[in-house]
Write a structure and sequence with these properties.
The chain is mainly beta. The chain is built from one helix and eleven strands, in the order βββββββββαββ.
Length: about 130
């Protein structure tokens, strides 16, 4: 069992930055690939970025390219999402998730690939 707790969300003006964190419980964090998803009101949950167990492989949604960066610190059991140049359309609840295995892009972007989810953190970008 893995418990995930997100933090770092908030209200920011367009063009600003936020860094989200997701702290995982347990001693097995390094055995999970990690992902970030988001869900805006009235929309489906969508993939943002994912990172392999070691951090050597990253998967990035088109909407995040050049602006967001996922990273992880296995010693701290934490995954991060650095978000720069934020836009109002980035407004959503952001969720982190853990997957026992991600070996393809299709797996990385698929919600059903993930075994554990956090409760989410709200990000609101004002224009």
């Amino acid at each position: 069992q893995v418990q995930l707790v997100e933090s770092g969300g908030g209200l920011v003006q367009a063009g600003g930055s936020l860094r989200l964190s997701c702290a995982a419980s347990g001693r097995t964090f390094s055995t999970y690939a990690m992902g970030w998803f988001r869900q805006a009101p009235g929309k489906e949950r969508e993939f943002v970025e994912a990172i392999s167990r070691s951090g050597g492989v990253r998967y990035v949604a088109e909407s995040a390219k050049g602006r967001f960066t996922i990273s992880r610190d296995n010693a701290k059991n934490t995954v991060y999402l650095q978000m720069n140049s934020l836009k109002p359309e980035d407004t959503a609840v952001y969720y982190c998730a853990a997957a026992r295995s991600l070996t393809t892009t299709a797996q990385a972007i698929g919600i059903t690939s993930y075994d554990y989810w956090g409760q989410g953190t709200q990000v609101t970008v004002s224009s």
